[in-house]
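U., I forgot to send this yesterday:
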Amino acid sequence: MKIKDKYEFFNFNDTLNGIMTLFVLLLNNNWIYVSEMLYYSNNSVVSEIFLISFGIGVRFVCMSLILGLIAKVIVLFFEQEFEL
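Result:
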């Protein structure tokens, strides 16, 4: 079974497949096969640049949100703890 048979729906031909592709990339699930599939469908390095920038960007945003949430919980905990 070829890679194309398994990952043929990971593309940006329509909205649903595009959302599914970005979700798979967000979860970092077999991203090397998805990037290979997109590269061979476009024959361009632009798809590789997009996938790498999307992966880095999403991880920075998610990490910022998680760290912000943790910091907020810690601040609220200590405000309640030392309240007179």
